[in-house]
Design a protein that fits this description.
Blueprint lengths: L32 E7 L4 E4 L14 E4 L9 E13 L2 E14 L7 E5 L1 H12 L3 E2 L5 H14 L1 H5 L3 H7 L1
Parallel strand pairs: 3-6, 5-7
Antiparallel strand pairs: 1-2, 1-4, 4-5, 5-6
C-alpha cells in the first residue's frame, strides 16, 4: 500500500505583484503560512491547508457564532497560523498565532461552534509579521504543538526564532 503523503509547511517565495506596485498591493500574501490544527481531545496536531478558507476538517458542518454560551460540552481545538521563512541555515518558523475554536459535541447535522473571525484574521496577519501569539493556549495544547513541530518538522523547529521557541515552552 502506498505511503500516505504528509502535509508539509508552505515555504514559497515570490512577490505576486512582481515588485511593480500594481494590482494586489496591500493584500496578504499567504505563500509562507500554514494552518496547524491542534486537537487536545485526540492529542494530535496536523496541517490542514483547507483552514485558509475556513474549510478545515474541524470546521465542516459547523455554524459558528461569536459567543461560547449556547455550546453543549464543546470540544476545544486550536488553529495555529505558522509563518515560515528561509534563511541561509534553512527554513524556520518566523511567527505563530493561535486561535481558539470550539465545536459542540451534541448530535446534530450542523453543529454550533465558536470562533472569532477577527481573531483569526489578526493572528494570521501578526504571525506573518513575526509576532508570537500563543500565551492564551493551554499547556497541554502547546505541548502537543511543540511535539508535532519537533517530530514532524525538526529542521524547521531547530532553526526557529528564539521568540517562537520561548513562547511555546
Amino acid at each position: 500500500m502506498a505511503e500516505e503523503k504528509k502535509n508539509q509547511f508552505n515555504i514559497l517565495s515570490g512577490d505576486s505583484t512582481g515588485g511593480d506596485g500594481s494590482y494586489g498591493v496591500g493584500t496578504i500574501n499567504l505563500d509562507n503560512i500554514s494552518p496547524v490544527i491542534v486537537d487536545p481531545q485526540k492529542e494530535e496536531a496536523y496541517i490542514d491547508m483547507d483552514a485558509l478558507h475556513a474549510r478545515s476538517k474541524i470546521e465542516k458542518k459547523v455554524r459558528f457564532k461569536p459567543d461560547k454560551e449556547p455550546l453543549v460540552e464543546p470540544n476545544l481545538y486550536w488553529i495555529v497560523w505558522v509563518a515560515t521563512q528561509v534563511a541561509q541555515e534553512g527554513p524556520y518558523i518566523y511567527g505563530i498565532g493561535a486561535c481558539e475554536v470550539q465545536v459542540s459535541t451534541e448530535e446534530r447535522r450542523i453543529k454550533p461552534g465558536y470562533k472569532s473571525m477577527p481573531e483569526h484574521v489578526n493572528n494570521l496577519d501578526k504571525s506573518l509579521k513575526g509576532k508570537v501569539l500563543v500565551e492564551h493556549m493551554d499547556e497541554k495544547s502547546k505541548q502537543i504543538l511543540v511535539d508535532y513541530l519537533k517530530e514532524e518538522h525538526g529542521e524547521l523547529w531547530k532553526n526557529s526564532r528564539d521568540e517562537v521557541i520561548d513562547g511555546l515552552q
